[in-house]
C-alpha cells in the first residue's frame, strides 16, 4: 500500500502532468521559455523530468525522490498501424553491478528498491510506424506504480535467473530475451566497454556492461492498460 506521505509528496507532480496532458513538447518549451538557443537537458525526457517537474535526474543507486523512495520513469508510446498503443522501447532501471548482484538476496537487492514506487510519465513518440519530431511529442498521462505481491514474485524470478548466470560466471551470456518483466540489456559505449564480473571460480572476468530494463511486456501489460489514453485515441 502506498502511504499518504508518498501521495502528499507526489501531488504537486500529479497536478503538473494533469495540466500538461495533451500538450506537445513544443508547447511546454514555450510555456517554460525554453528556446532553441537554450540547452535542453537530455532531450524530451530531460525536459519533462528536470524542466517541467523540476526534479534532478540521476543515475545513482538512490531513488530520484529519495525522501519517499520514488523513481521517475519516462515512457514513450507508439501507435501501430493497426491502432494498437504499445511501449516504444524497454525502459532502463539501473546498471548491473555484477559483483554486487552475485552477493545480494532479493529481499534487500538494489533493484528491488528501484522498482518499489515508480511515477511513470507517458508521452506519444511514434505514430503509424513513423517517429514524431521531438517537438511534436504529446504528453499522454501519468501512472503511480507500486507492484503487488504477484508482480513482485515475477520480478523476483527474473532477478534470480539473472543472478544465477552471474554467479556461475556466465554474465556475458545474459540476453535481453530473458525474463518476463525485466531483462539484462547491454548498455555501454561499444563492445569493448567492459567491467568486472565473477568467473564462477572465485575470480573475476571482464564482460560487457549491462543494465536492468523493464521489458516492454511489463509496460504493455501492467502500465499502459491503466492509462487515460483519451488525448491520443482517435
User: From the alpha-carbon coordinates, what is the Rg to the nearest angstrom?
Assistant: 19 Å
Q: What's the SSE pattern?
A: HHHEEEHHEEEHEEEEH
Would you tell me the overall average pLDDT?
Answer: 93
Ends apart, CA distance between termini: 35 Å
Summarize the main sheet.
Answer: 5 strands, mixed
Number of helices: 7
Number of strands: 10
Supply the helix-strand structural class.
Answer: alpha+beta
Unreliably modeled segments: none
- Strand percentage lies at 25-35%
- Indicate the percent of residues in helices: 25-40%
- Describe the global form: globular
What does the model show?
The protein is an alpha+beta fold and 234 residues long. Helix content is 31%, strand content 25%. Strands 1, 2, 4, 5 and 6 form a 5-stranded mixed beta sheet that branches. It has a 3-stranded antiparallel beta sheet with strand order 3-10-7. It has a two-stranded antiparallel ribbon with strand order 8-9. The longest helix is centred in the last third of the chain and has 19 residues, at 149-167.
Offer a concise description of the structure.
With 234 residues, the protein is an alpha+beta fold. The protein has 7 helices and 10 strands.
Which helices and strands occur, and which strands form pairs?
Blueprint: H1 4-20, H2 25-31, H3 43-52, E1 70-79, E2 85-87, E3 91-95, H4 98-103, H5 110-115, E4 117-127, E5 130-131, E6 138-145, H6 149-167, E7 182-186, E8 194-198, E9 204-208, E10 210-214, H7 216-223
Parallel strand pairs: 1-4
Antiparallel strand pairs: 1-2, 3-10, 4-5, 4-6, 7-10, 8-9
Amino acid at each position: 500500500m502506498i502511504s499518504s506521505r508518498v501521495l502528499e509528496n507526489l501531488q504537486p507532480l500529479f497536478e503538473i502532468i494533469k495540466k500538461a496532458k495533451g500538450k506537445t513538447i513544443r508547447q511546454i518549451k514555450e510555456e517554460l521559455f525554453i528556446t532553441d538557443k537554450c540547452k535542453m537537458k537530455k532531450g524530451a525526457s530531460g525536459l519533462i523530468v528536470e524542466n517541467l517537474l523540476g526534479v534532478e535526474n540521476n543515475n545513482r543507486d538512490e531513488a530520484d525522490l529519495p525522501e519517499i523512495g520514488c523513481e521517475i520513469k519516462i515512457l514513450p508510446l507508439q501507435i501501430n498501424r493497426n491502432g494498437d498503443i504499445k511501449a516504444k522501447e524497454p525502459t532502463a532501471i539501473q546498471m548491473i553491478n555484477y559483483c554486487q548482484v552475485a552477493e545480494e538476496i532479493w529481499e534487500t537487492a538494489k533493484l528491488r528498491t528501484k522498482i518499489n514506487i515508480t511515477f511513470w510519465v507517458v508521452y506519444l513518440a511514434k505514430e503509424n510506424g513513423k517517429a514524431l519530431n521531438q517537438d511534436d511529442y504529446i504528453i499522454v498521462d501519468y501512472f503511480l506504480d507500486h507492484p503487488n505481491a504477484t508482480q513482485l514474485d515475477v520480478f523476483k524470478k527474473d532477478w534470480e535467473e539473472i543472478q544465477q548466470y552471474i554467479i556461475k560466471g556466465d554474465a556475458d551470456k545474459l540476453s535481453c530475451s530473458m525474463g518476463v518483466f525485466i531483462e539484462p540489456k547491454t548498455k555501454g559505449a561499444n563492445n569493448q566497454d567492459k567491467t568486472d564480473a565473477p568467473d564462477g571460480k572465485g575470480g573475476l572476468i571482464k564482460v560487457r556492461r549491462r543494465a536492468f530494463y523493464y521489458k516492454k511486456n511489463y509496460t504493455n501489460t501492467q502500465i499502459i492498460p491503466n492509462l487515460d489514453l483519451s488525448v491520443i485515441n482517435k
